[in-house]
Amino acid sequence: YIFGYKSILRNIAMRIGGNYTSFNSNTRVNPQQPRSNFSNTDIQFRLGYEWRRSLSAKWMWFYGLDGTIVNNSNKSKSTQNFTINGMQVPVDNITTGSSKGYGGGPLIGLQWNISKRISLFAEARAYSIYTEERIEVKWENVTDELKQRFPNSFDERNNVDYFNVFNISLPLDVFVVFNF
């Protein structure tokens, strides 16, 4: 998580963390083709507890449980050209998606206390997240002639799916901790 905070009382810590990422792209395959647009926003939040155990004066390990909430939304728009009677007819395909999920799971980690104020740690997590995903596909600027010439090419749909995701995060990232 990009942002994290721990409130430590003796050997127990309450954990709060969050992520926010946003991405936009505007691409063109070649100068004769229209642009394609894509945007994505991802928000994640976690809340949990960890129990801390000393290994030595500078080293400790911890284990705990997190609850998590995730929210993702994306949208893509691409223009496709169809040829009718020698003329290019641009048609827009718009796909929007969103997913919301909640879950959680166990964690385990190792921490090195470099000084009283600075530490490094890495942790592994295993989260199970129940997710609802919505996808909508629609078309714009489709003429009746295009629908007749290319049947079933412009079907619109709106789907809702439910599934469970099991995600294991290995302790590959090292985090810097500043103690206040």
Short description:
This protein has 180 residues and is mostly beta strands. The chain contains one helix and eight strands; from the N terminus they run ββββββαββ. The radius of gyration is 24 Å and the shape is elongated.
What this model shows, in words?
There is one protein chain. Strands 1, 2, 3, 4, 5, 6, 7 and 8 form an eight-stranded antiparallel sheet that branches. The longest helix has 6 residues. Helix content is 3%, strand content 75%. The protein contains one helix and eight strands, in the order E-E-E-E-E-E-H-E-E. It is mainly beta. The radius of gyration is 24 Å and the shape is elongated. A hairpin with a 2-residue loop joins strand 1 and strand 2.
> Helicity, in percent?
under 10%
Give the N-terminus to C-terminus distance in angstroms.
20 Å
Main beta-sheet strand count, sense and barrel state? 8 strands, antiparallel
The whole-number mean of residue pLDDT values reads 92
Task: Outline the low-pLDDT stretches.
Answer: none
Structural class: mainly beta
Order of helices and strands: EEEEEEHEE
What share of the residues does DSSP label as strand, in percent? Answer: over 45%
Features:
180 residues; mainly beta; single chain; 8-stranded antiparallel beta sheet
Secondary structure layout:
Blueprint: E1 3-9, E2 12-27, E3 36-54, E4 59-84, E5 87-113, E6 118-140, H1 144-149, E7 157-169, E8 175-178
Antiparallel strand pairs: 1-2, 2-3, 3-4, 4-5, 5-6, 6-7, 6-8
